[in-house]
Amino acid sequence: MAHDFEGPMIRVVDLVTYYGERRILNRVNLDIQAGETMVILGGSGTGKSTLIRHIIRLELPTSGHIFIKTHDICHMPEERFDLLRHKIGMLFQSAALFNSMTIEENVSLPLCELTQLEDSTIRIMTRIKLDLVGLNGFENYMPAQLSGGMKKRAGLARALAMDPEILLFDEPSAGLDPVTAAGIDALILKLKRAFRMTIVVVTHEMASAFLIADRITVMDRGEVIAVGTPDEIKASTHPKVQQFLNRTPEEEAIDAQAYLRTLTQSGE
Amino acid sequence: MKVQVRNVEDVAIIDCSGDVDLYSSPRLREALLGQIRGGAKSVLVNMGEVGYIDSSGIATLVEGLQLSRTTKTRFGLYSLRSNARSVLELARLHKVFNLFETEQEALEKIGSVQPFGGL
Amino acid sequence: MTGVLALIGRNTLAFLRYLSGLYDLTSEAVYWTFVAPFKGREIKWDNAFHQMVLAGVNSIPIVSLISLFIGVVLGLQGAYQLEKFGATYYVTALVGVSMTRELGPLITAIIIAGRSGSAFAAEIGTMKVSEEIDALEVMGLNIVRYLVVPKYLALLVMMPCLTLVSDLAGILGGGIFEIYQLDQTFAMFLSATRDALVMRDITTGLIKSLVFGLIITEVGCYEGFTVRGGAEGVGKSTTSAVVVSIFLIIFADVVFTAIFYYTS
User: All domains of chain B, ordered by start, with CATH?
Assistant: First the structure.
């Protein structure tokens, strides 16, 4: 798996997703280059988490394609995607550690289940990953004994277990205090420099986005409204982007008649 | 990945080439541990042709180092490419191994190192 | 009127969707239990043994105690009826046959639905809510193989065992009443029981218990996988795992009892 691949690592083409009647993603197009750190920025409910879940095929789109290297992952059988999946790691918003297993068992699980490596090799690999995220010495702790930030670190060690080429982060700083969140950001920067992995981060934290990103994608209501380097995004004149950067609250359209109707309408 | 073993006097050299990853590192492990257990006085791994090494490869080398300490075998690596070196550094292992620049340097110096790693 | 019809229609559709979901889960579990091991994908035995202890061994006290009481009650009620004919000797037969054919499997199933069915739903539901299920999927580990099959195997082994325990405890409960109230000796009780029971009584009960075990696992796991909306959702699923599995157990009981009746 040398980094010998030319062209975008991840290419999203005309992605459309409905949940029932509700449209979550609307013709999303996005290229993520090999080795770059792409931050997907947007408020809650803008479809950014849904997008990242599509990239790892936790969800399938209503229409459109996602290519990882040259493979169209939305239209390939499950078994074939499995081989590709091993090269993608994901850190979940809640870290998603298996609560019935120790930290070491959590991190080594993919290696034990998916490779033919010897237990002794796996143990050393697990320790290396835990050391990398700063959790040396916590092998035998249960997830419940760790703080929120440490859980995220352990989740990251697990995501790194298979030496992925692509690393996905869903709201890495969610639920953490600013100091701990900054620690996670620093960790992402360290990994980015060390491994030249393709990293995709979904977040609504602007400070962290501008710190770690090579490029930023801004999303609003299921659509990509701006893509560019942090400087380009700062200079963007798109009203929604500016609104997000300046933290202006959403202006609500006031329609007096419609509002009155919602107040006086009797239940069906 | 290809693994070949040759002997220069009493030193066993493992020439490793290609990508050392989750699927190929067991073969390196077999060759490496086999040489150390087989009673070689010194074992060197030639990393010059290794394009990519992942953490399973690093872990395999650590296993080799660990075993070499119990068998009192001299163990070293040489001709590391920059990415292999940075992976080692990231795992904070570059000071644990005996690292040499060239095969010649490795052959000259391996005889004089302590038979249990650099620590 | 149309409102009522629409309601009936909606609920029927929802029920059919539920059944098809159960069917999908069951067929996948059957594949990973009986087919995949022959293709080199081994079963998680240590996991299965762990479940056997949780669902099976730990249920022995409660199953035997409740069955014992039911045996005593059956003896009392049977004696009340049979006294009128002076046939209290047949109380033993009544207890033995009803325990093995019907009440042993049923009581066991209801207790296990309450103990393990709910635990399955809660375990898987919590994993779903905390994204652990997603994490398994992202790693490429099959969730049915990993989570459902060990539970399924555990109940497949443990339900018949617990049913036998229940049968024994119930018959013993009846025996206690008969010996102390109906002035029978232990030997009389034993021989009356042996005369009353045929092998078929026990085997039909065990066959039922296998089906009940299947229902409990599938419903419990299915409810867990379909949890929506956080901790509250887990609570709801846990409750409906018990209610739905007890309903399906009784329904299956009717079907199997009818089959056994007409084929004997």
Answer: 2-111 (3.30.750.24)
